[in-house]
Amino acid sequence: MNTSSSFVPRGLFRDREAALANTLVLAWTCTGWFESFALMGAHAVLLNIAGVVLCAHAMVLAAYLVHEAAHQTLFAAHRAIVSPHVAVPFRSLYSPPKHWSVLGSGVLLGMWMLANFDSAINYIEEARIPVRTVQRALLIVLTSAFLIYTIAAIGWQYALPVEALAKITENGDGGPIGAIARVYLPPMLSWIAILVVISSAMAGLQVSMTAGARTAYRMAQEGHLPRVFGGTNRYHAPWVSVVVIGAIAIGFVWYKPLSDVTFYYNTVVVTLALAYMSALAAFIRLMFARHSFGRAAAASVLPLSAIAVLGYLMYSAGAEPPDPKDKYQAWYIGVGVLISGVLIVIFGKSPRRSAVGGIRHRGVPTP
After folding, report:
1. What are the angstrom distances between the C-alpha of 260 and each of 87, 169, 253, 263?
2. 3-state secondary structure of 115
3. Residue 260 · residue 236 · CB < 8 Å
4. Has this prediction a pTM greater than 0.85?
């Protein structure tokens, strides 16, 4: 065997003898492509010309490599998808379930996976043209996530049987994600999937905590929370809300370990469902208050249907959970969320900020 092939992960390329050459050409193509932009952005004409030539050269190599990869003559790892390990008919992936109630858990899981994307709306104040940036960005991200999750779900079905995936528990090796990664990736690269999951979870946690702090700050400004939550430091960061949100998160981890992920899953999806139902109900109320009865009734059909679906999803999450020991847990969490909301409405009121300056910090009105 060629000794040069020992420098690359086993099973990454189709032919072990060409492993070193493939590694070098991939490294040269990627490096040359990035370097070409640096040269094209330089302030010397000769460097700009060299950058254009290098960019064209790298793109030609990239097109050749993509062509070879598409014909399965470059990599070996992706052949698991083309030749599946599990014989699953494609039509069965989209066949109706025997019991429609199981769709409730699936839809709630989808809400949980997309929970942090809508938190980005809290940053709308940072955008100069929100419609062009934040809203379009959310639509693009949600559409991309739908496509990526759809492809991933199909790949998972072909990697391992559903029954085997359902029995895998998290014990430090990545759980179901790690099991699937070990099917599709070489042993030396299976850690990538686990790293992606951990980094995305941490990014989602950061977005959620930051968005929660900004929401508490804004509610304090508008008088829906005590004024202390609107406190900022010299950098105009809402440090009080950040500290409180962080303390609540640490308290939850202390109360329920991360291994009991079902508790956090139910908490997130039930809170989201109640928030969406409240927003839809507020929309319906405004429609009847500002428009004629016929127009308001016509516009309320879809929101009422969404409220009914969300209500059924919350019912199924508590009545028929995946794990019998979690029965009614989602209901208890929903009651807790409603009680906390009522307490905020009753006791969280603070004197309304003045129409002139709002909440002031260090004698300077907060923007």
Report:
1. 33, 11, 10, 6
2. coil
3. no
4. no
